[in-house]
Amino acid sequence: MQYFTMGTWVLALALGVAWAGTLVGLICIRQSTLSVTAKFRLVWLTAAAVCIGAIGTQVATTVTMLGVGLPSGVVRYDVTQRMIALAVAPVGILAGLIIAGEHRKPVRLGIGALIAGLGLGLTNYLGLSSLTVQGSTSIDPAVVAGCTVLLVLLAGGLLWAMRWRVTTALVGISVVYAGVIIGIHYLGLSGLSLRIDPAMSQPTGRDLFTMFIPIFVVATMSLAVPITAVLVAPDRTGRLQPEARTKRVPKDPRRRRIPGPNRTAEARTSEPVG
């Protein structure tokens, strides 16, 4: 099996898509911490899960499959499995984000990382098993298990990184996530074995281009929605700052209280008496 039949630009495109989707997702997570209500926080987390799970993970790894080919024969993909994988990834990420919570306690962080990582692991397996050829395919269970463990660790690191708010830090985190997720995907591909049998019928399924191009266009254009929402969202960072103390107006030194039965009477010291 060949990984770069179309050139290494496929790898660069995959890394770019993974980076962009993850960065927008991390920014959505940051916006969720500024939400006043739980409803809007859930909306931001859902947008983050779609950006990271669907675009930054599933669409990005699908880009790499454009370069996968055989010296002889054709490769087809099961549409149902690809669509399930596209849905499982954001659901797993969203579950992990909700379980981890805003305060990221160690126990909740671990459970959230496990759920999100298992979701990514299932996505990885579905993506690999969706490939069909004129013959048979098999996946090494040890490689699948190793990829799943790495994905759980990656999900834990991603949830832990929710504590960062500075944009430059989010850019760096998204670069790391993009590199690791693509690397794990190629590790999974290394455990995929193909056996070509000319005596068997042609593989069922669809060509990746006919299935991927509309998904890629919709996914990249959909990034404009959370980006626009972030730009037009009200800046609530001010509510996190301590309220300014009321400035006391100094008393007029020319005024003094006149002792006597009526203590409310006042007179100016600058005015002559008598």
Task: Give an account of the 3D structure.
The chain is built from eight helices and six strands, in the order ααβααββααβααββ. The longest helix has 28 residues. It has a two-stranded antiparallel ribbon with strand order 1-2. α1 packs antiparallel against α2. It is mainly α and 274 residues long. It has one domain.
Biggest sheet descriptor: 2 strands, antiparallel
SS-derived structural category: mainly alpha
Question: Count the helices. How many?
Answer: 8
Query: Residue ranges: pLDDT <50 for 5 or more in a row?
Result: 237-246, 263-271
Please give the domain count.
1
The 3D shape can be described as elongated
What's the end-to-end separation, in Å?
Answer: 112 Å
* Proportion of helical residues: 55-70%
The count of strands amounts to 6
Beta percentage is: 5-15%
What would you report as the Rg, rounded to the nearest angstrom? 29 Å
Mean pLDDT: 84
Output the helix-strand order: HHEHHEEHHEHHEE
Biggest sheet strand order reads 1-2
Provide keyphrases for this structure.
single chain, 274 residues, mainly alpha, two-stranded antiparallel sheet, elongated, transmembrane, membrane
Set out the fold topology:
Blueprint lengths: L8 H24 L5 H28 L10 E2 L1 H22 L5 H24 L1 E2 L2 E5 L1 H20 L6 H24 L1 E5 L11 H15 L1 H9 L22 E3 L8 E3 L6
Antiparallel strand pairs: 1-2, 3-4, 5-6
Helix pairs in contact: 1-2, 1-6, 2-3, 2-4, 2-6, 2-7, 3-4, 4-5, 5-6
